[in-house]
Amino acid sequence: MRLLSLTLEQFRNYEQLDLSFPSGTQVFYGANAQGKTNLLEAIYLCTCARSHRTGRDDELVRHGQTYYRVGIRFLTDQNLEESLSISYQTASSSKPSLRTIEYNGFDVTRVADLMGLFHAIIFAPEDLQIVKGGPAERRRFLDIMISRTDRAYFRDLQEYWTILGQRNRLLKVIREANFNNSRRRQSKRSQEQQGTQNNKHSAEEDQSESKMPDEKKDVDCSLFQMDDHLHLDVWDQKLAEVSSSILRKRLDYAKYLQEYGALSLMHLTLLKEELAVSYRSLSGLESSMTKKEIETHFLNRLKTARDDDIARGSTAQGPHRDDLFFSLNGQDARLYASQGQQRSIVLALKMAELVILSRRTGEKPILLLDDVLSELDASRRHQLLDVISGHHVFITSTDASMFRPWNGPLHFYAVSKGTVTPKSVVGAGETENRKDKK
After folding, report:
1. Taking a C-beta distance cutoff of 8 angstroms, is the pair 298, 315 a contact?
2. pLDDT tens-digit profile of 163-221?
3. Per-residue pLDDT tens for 65-83?
4. Tens digits of per-residue pLDDT, 93-145?
5. Of 22, 127, 202, 432, which one has the greatest count of Cβ atoms within 10 A?
6. For the chain, percent helix, then strand, then coil, each to nearest 5?
7. What confidence score (pLDDT) does residue 24 get?
8. Is the pLDDT of residue 438 over 50?
């Protein structure tokens, strides 16, 4: 896959930009905070309609503006030229915010349908959180990777979150009903202990009142609570069904990450480091379980934990609580690996993702390297460049000289204050203006 052009309007610090890209490696160089990363961010946005740096579209809009637009043209490995654009309009007093996605001129109404149309993998400093961050970072990495090769998985995730929200709301309703019933019983016991037997008239009044709305409310509440538990059975079944599909695929892809990630790290470190990747589920899954076995197992776990979930008002186990575990040389990489080792693990995982996407889609993804090479020693830099050869590569750096010598076509772009000036190499350590459009 090759990126042919990039167009930006009111995106980050770019007012207007139109760039075309030849074959080979593209290098955006310049001082920090000039807009280099924003270019890679815009390209990556077209893979899944989400920035790798933020989940808020408003943050992508240029300061003082009300919209942004990102457009790309790309060539597939089947030699088909495609176009894709993402536009976003901020909310106003009369209209909500609106995101529009177009593919070859046709509207893409669901993000799920965008998945798998354009493939790019980004290597960025933020990716270090995959190893050193919390479980949510690792789940997001895994979910995005699977979704880009399996649109049904993305739809399952959306359905899962909808069902989970419904179940959690019902758990809170039942918890509130239990609390109210408990208070009502305590109040009745207190009244009974007072022994209000003063006269026949008051006793008759008590008997009369017990037949009036309060008791009717008690009966209705009890029946309502029974209905809630039956309703919870329905949500448990739905949650188990969609969870089994998600979990089975996560287990499969964790296995792929283990296989290709371990090989990639050995390649990067010249056989000095050993990586192990495993999927950890609070539901106690076995990697050999079938989808149906996972569904039955998870449903039983939900039933067992029901009382605790009601007391908590939320679901304590499921795909939303699981994690990926990385072991380096037999030790927890999150706790014991140095930052340099953690960075190598992330690179190995990204290289594994590269292999997985290539094999599952038949396309070589575009590679986006955001100031990655400067963080590597010469040996690991050489190993990484060996792996990414044959891909259309986009790199950011503060130092253009570090790319000489380079194997293959190399194109430079000077980035300064939201402007991009194409350059070309004419000799060792020398550059000159290219004739392309600025």
Report:
1. no
2. 999 999 999 999 988 776 666 666 666 666 666 555 555 545 444 444 434 433 443 44
3. 999 999 999 999 999 999 9
4. 999 999 999 999 999 999 999 999 999 999 998 999 999 999 999 999 999 99
5. 127
6. 50, 20, 25
7. 86
8. no
**Rounded CA gap, 80 and 213, in Å?**
72
pLDDT at position 110, please?
A: 93
How many structural domains comprise the chain?
A: 2
Residue 150 lies in a domain: yes
Peptide bond before residue 409 is cis, with ω within 30 degrees of 0: no
CATH for 257: 1.20.1050.90
Task: List the structure tokens of 2.
Answer: 């090759």
| DSSP annotation of 363 | S
Token readout for 89 is 């309009």
Residues 356 and 414 in one domain: no
Q: Which residues is 326 bridged to in the sheet?
A: 277
Distance between CA atoms of residues 63 and 59, nearest Å = 9
Q: What is the four-CA torsion angle of 130, 57, 118, 366, rounded to 10 degrees?
A: -50
The phi and psi torsions of 240 (rounded to 5 degrees) equal -65, -40
Cα–Cα distance for residue pair 421/412, rounded to 1 Å: 9
Co-location of 358 and 397 in the same domain: no
The parent domain of residue 300 ranges over: 126-188+220-362
* Parallel, antiparallel or unpaired: strands 14-20 and 393-397: unpaired
Task: Answer yes or no: are the C-beta atoms of 16 and 115 closer than 8 Å.
Answer: no
d(CA 207, CA 410): 93
Average pLDDT, the chain: 87
Strands 106-107 and 120-123: unpaired
DSSP H helix total and E strand total for the chain: 12, 16
Which positions ≥6 away from 143 have C-beta within 8 Å?
153, 154, 157
Burial class (CB in 10 A: 0-12, 13-18, 19+), 219: exposed
Same domain, yes or no, for 150 and 72? no
